[in-house]
């Protein structure tokens, strides 16, 4: 989980736990459940983060702008603009292809990690001690 994405990460972990339980529960009926774990993808959310700051600011509601303040939003935007994970975001069609594979395959994988970031960055980081993972993620973000 990366800083600045608490609610997103929490919902993602909840869905992963649900899917793990569901896979085990459905085993008796021969039903398969796969989990798709992509890294950052070039979605409208990511594209909005890397827009020039004035465009980014106008894409936010007045309520968000007032609540967070321009100084924080500018700093956060600048950080996201330089974020290596954002810069290296993959084509979301890779996720679509993996979903198609999982649905069409008679023996789908339990986990799919489409794109470059998930298998090469996030998977290795997930097995490191937390203090090392924190240090690496701070540098990437």
From TrEMBL:
Q: Name one GO molecular function term.
A: oxidoreductase activity
Q: Which domain of life is it from?
A: Eukaryota
- Gene3D superfamilies the record matches: NAD(P)-binding Rossmann-like Domain
Give the GO terms filed under biological process for this record: steroid metabolic process
User: InterPro entries of this UniProt entry?
Assistant: NAD(P)-bd_dom_sf, SDR_fam
Q: What is this protein called?
A: Uncharacterized protein
